Amino acid sequence: MPDSETHPPTRTFGHRKLVSRVCVVTHQPHVRTFLCDAIEEIGLLTSECAEPEALPLVLAADHPDLVVIGVTNDGFAVDLAFDRLAQSLFAGPVLLIGHADLLSLSAALTRGKALGLAMLPVLTTPYRHRDLRERLSAVLSIEPPDPPPVDVAGALHSGWFELWYQPKMELRSFELCGAEALIRLRHPTWGVVPPAYFIPDDGDPHFRALSEFVIEQAVADWHYFVDSYRSVELAINLPLAYLKDPASLGELARRLPRHPAFRGLIVEINGTEVARELDTTMAIARQARFHNIGISIDDLGAEWPQFLAIDEFPFVEIKVDRKFVSDCAEDKLKQLVCRRIVELAEGYGVRTVAEGVETRAEFLAVREIGFHMVQGFLVAKPMGVKKFARTALRGPIVLGP
Prior knowledge:
Number of strands: 18
Oligomer: single chain
Strand content: 15-25%
């Protein structure tokens, strides 16, 4: 049998290499959730196992390439988990994660090796995200392969689509002021598939069904947020072609929550689309406000001068494209463009969002320029609905490194 540390197991689908799978084993739900979130952010698929006795069933159903066991001091039977792995002839690597002071950690490592399991060096807590990535990348394929094109109709029918949420921070108060809903597809084999592989063109017959999914799911998620945590302003992305249908705006309005905490929905439309059909989009924006829907100009870039000469500005928000925000702390031309757009927005009395902020220098620059809000990896990456609720909605936002 090949050494799993030097020859990790490879899963194939046709001639394509598939995303590696990791099973997380511990009976503490919050630890399982934390570890699964961290592993999925790396780009791997995960499954969970709460009790050692259930391991054979999980191994048979999910065929994980690696097993992560959380070692705690509350009586979790690590030795029993090892027995079940050995009895199931699990040949993949096993990673123990636990606090460095736990005496049981070294004992568990010795026990696993004695049973012939492919034990990795222990990962002690607290650890950095890159430590986990480095440990897993040594034995698994971390770089995701290109997934095949996705059939949108089939994915909708199978329930593979979900919405992730990226927080927006108010720059003066440093508080959460909203979130953008971003569509993701969680394929059972390929994991999370990038939107480029499934977003249909405007002329595709499936683009309307996908738009309706986004609306329905965002409303359902908003109810989950307000019932379990608190209200939050949500923004969704819709193509202009969807809103040009005379019946769409009324249908969207009918789906909105009838809840006293609901303050309205933001619909983001790409700035290039808005500029290309400005009169049409302005008419839609005017009508939308009567339905408690605000239209935001998303990813505004080189088209911004077209908005200087209009007498009326029915939009509620301008989001400046990352290409102008990136390196704006050093690039004087980008600073100038950002200032002009902020001045344009202030003249019309609407708010501005700096998109794609990834460094503290960019954060300080857009704050000094006068943006109202900021969105980007420095604030938070997009995250699943439950993770967004328990992190962004429950506590203060902490800027990344």
